[in-house]
């Protein structure tokens, strides 16, 4: 199968995995011992849980969006080469259609003579 038909390349998947790990780290930093009815735990309002961890999660989600939106680069081909290849394919298709049309016209002429 042709590689340029895939939406993601290896770098996209690596970026997605790293982004997911960043989000998981953010959620782990947010977790901790809760307050109960018997005892109040002031650690639930710590800077780590309230400010740092949500920012880390947000950065992980933003990097996930980038990993999804990032367009893979074609290795070894430039835009000019790609356009030339498309023109060559279009010319070959035109030649094939022209040959088929000529054959059809010849068949119609033969059929009309009979």
Q: Tell me the structural class.
A: mainly alpha
Mean pLDDT, nearest integer?
Answer: 83
Largest sheet: none
Number of strands: 0
Query: Which percent range fits the helix content?
Result: 55-70%
How far apart lie the N and C ends? 49 Å
Estimate the strand proportion. under 5%
The Rg value, from CA coordinates, equals 30 Å
**SSE succession:** HHH
Number of helices: 3
Summed up:
With 114 residues, this protein is mainly alpha-helical. It has 3 helices and no strands.
Properties at a glance:
114 residues; mainly alpha; 3 helices; 0% strand
Describe the protein in words.
With 114 residues, the protein is mostly helical. 69% of the residues lie in helices and 0% in strands. The protein contains three helices and no strands. It starts with 9 loop residues before the first helix and ends with a helix. 2% of the residues are buried.
Q: Which helices and strands, and how do they pair?
A:
Layout: H1 10-30, H2 47-69, H3 79-113
